[in-house]
Amino acid sequence: MSRKVKILLGLLVLVLMAAAYFMFFTASISVTSQPGDARVSINGQFIGTTPIEDHPLSPGRYKLAVAHSHYEIQTEQLDLALGDHLQRNYPLQAGQGVLELMSNPKGAWVEIDGERLSVVTPTQITLTSGKHRIRMGKAERRDAKTDLVLNSGANQQVNLNLGMDPHGSLTLKLRPASAKVEIIGAAIKYAAGVRLPMGEYTLQVSRPGYITQDKRITIQYGDNTEQITLARGYGKLAVQAIPADSFIDVTPAGSDTQAYSAAKRLPAGKVSVTARAMGYRTQTKTVNLTPAGQTVRFNLNKLRAVSGTVLVDKLTIGGNAPPMVIVPAGEFIMGNATGSGQERPVRSVQLTQPFAVGKYEVSIGEFGRYAKATGAELPKKVAAAITVEELSQDSPIANVSHQQATKYADWLSIQTGERYRLPTEAEWEYAARAGSQSPYFFGDQPKQLCDYANVADQTVKRRYRAWTVIDCNDGQDTPRKRGQYAPNAFGLYDTHGNVSEWVVDCGLPEYSNGSRDGTQAGQGQGCSSHGHRGGSWDSGPEEVANSYRKAANGGNGDRGIRLLREL
User: Fold this and answer.
1) Measured between alpha carbons, how far is 485 from 59 in angstroms, rounded to an integer?
2) Which of 198, 350, 497, 522 has its CA 20 to 30 A from that of 102?
């Protein structure tokens, strides 16, 4: 055997002897953990961090401890004998620790790992050990945050300093006041006095019909006031109507009605457009006009109605509504060029649709049917006059207010399914004139009034001797009957005298500002009073004229009702 081989055999024997000694005459331990880098101690002596392989130990009893800052300590008692080679793996479990949370100033809200807590500082919470992000904040202060590692079983303190973050209030004086305000890039809705952190902001102010405005503002500490006025946008409106000679009126939102002009630019936004033509049903459409312009089209339907036809609608409760006479469409001159200031200036008025007007003034019986059905009361003076037979069920109702007259018309509308209402001044005068332009529908001679009306005449003079009366005799001193005199050319009775008749218009509107569309009611100063037309049994020749105007704020013995029914 060669010398080299002998040497190799000797080394092999030594290795085998060493291995046998390690296996049978020593002991060792291997330690792993999840996660790694845990500190391993045996009998309180640190031996290294995981993973640890084959750490030699003499036979005996040992206390093994595996510790990690994030997790609970794992301990185990080991008994090693010669030849023992132990392997241990420790999955570490997260523990808990206590955080004492404080801030300067106190009263801050607290957020941990993005979740807002329901507490404010100072406070103490128990938390799972490990890495955490702490955030605190308070009004008028800047938020503060910190990252930390909470050790298992530890009691740690966090104290954050919240720097000043001043705010200011913002109040905008807007024109128009209803403009919408948006604070660009901020999750804050504007309201007068809203508080914002100091700094720069972009406001967007808009409203339909106006040009949107963006404005950059700076919020300073304290109260901030800004004035923003939007410029009105304008656009052209194109109207196409059949028939081509239709009358077109436009009403921009918030403005008065005006005659349409294709060349005129209108304020952008909602615009109401009305098309009318003689003998056709009126149509109204509302469009959203933009600066780019808008087109609206009408195709009016012919309204077929035979003038002079008497309509009698049935009531749901039984019985009939007052008889109504169809009046033709037409145009007339309203007012009196030589009359009082209330009757001037005269103006041309168009009633493009036929409509129906009460053949007579509303009677006590007709109004009484409404009162009985609704629980309303007859005027006390009327009830008393019926009791003593001064008046009958066929006498015209009087002593009713404008409100009572309106409620009666509304009730008829519900009962019949048709639209009943008080006439406008223009509709009343058109129906009363019946094609005439004279003071009275029959001419201009007051002495003839007694053939057509119950007015202040010689009969009244016997009862009221101091009165100045018309030199004729109609046979009545108070309105005891309806339809006792000759009707006008439209077949309407008592348009002069008997009782004055309420109209829908408020007060006595200026004629100079009146609409050419006679269906549009006028608005006078306030609405404490309403117009009434035609004069009454106690009126002289001037007051019973077609164009004469009066207004009142309550009922009286010389005021009654004549209704209009739309077709």
Assistant:
1) 141
2) 198
Cα distance between residue 303 and residue 26, in whole Å: 121
Q: Look at residues 198, 102, 201 and name the one whose alpha carbon lies nearest to residue 141.
A: 198
Q: Are residues 534 and 433 in contact, defined by beta-carbon separation less than 8 angstroms?
A: no
Amino acid at 152: S
In 430-470, the DSSP E strands lie at: none
- Looking at every residue in the chain, the average pLDDT score rounds to 91
Q: Mean pLDDT across the stretch 322-341?
A: 96
Residue found by looking up tokens 């800052």 in the block:
69
Residue 243 near residue 277 (C-beta atoms within 8 A): yes
- Asked if the model's pLDDT at residue 257 lies above 90, the reply is no
The overall pTM is greater than 0.85: no
Determine the Cα–Cα distance for residues 240 and 302; give it in Å rounded to an integer. 17
DSSP code at position 322: P
| Local structure of residue 198 (DSSP, 8 states) | S
d(CA 479, CA 537): 6
Residue 406: helix, strand or coil by DSSP? helix
* Cα–Cα dist 333/346, whole Å: 6
User: pLDDT digit string (tens) for 141-165?
Assistant: 889 999 999 988 899 999 999 988 8
From the number of C-beta atoms within 10 Å of its C-beta (0-12, 13-18, 19+), residue 120 rates as: middle
Per the CB < 8 A criterion, the answer to whether 197 and 215 are in contact is no
Query: Measuring CA to CA, which residue among 60, 67, 61 is closest to residue 41?
Result: 67
* Residue scoring higher pLDDT (486 or 253): 486
- 243-277 in b/e form (b: 16+ CB < 10 A) is eeebbbbbbbeeeeeeebeeeeebbbbebebbbbb
How is residue 504 written in tokens? 């829908």
Contact 242, 300 (CB under 8 A): yes
Q: 127 pLDDT exceeds 60?
A: yes
Tokens of 104: 């300067």
pLDDT score of 20: 46
Domains and CATH numbers, the chain: 26-91 (2.60.40.1120), 96-161 (2.60.40.10), 167-229 (2.60.40.1120), 234-289 (no CATH), 310-565 (3.90.1580.10)
Give pLDDT tens digits for 459-503.
Answer: 888 888 888 889 888 888 888 889 999 999 999 999 999 999 999
Task: Please give the helix or strand (H or E) that residue 173 lies within, else none.
Answer: strand 167-175
Q: Helices 402-416 and 364-374, interaxial angle, to 10°?
A: 80
Angle among Cα 409, 415, 416 to the nearest 5 degrees reads 90
Q: Three-state SS for 243?
A: coil
Name the 3-class secondary structure at 361: coil
Tokens of 30: 């291997």
- Residue (of 553, 418, 444, 567) closest to 496 by Cα position: 444
> Residue 370 — φ and ψ, nearest 5°?
-65, -45
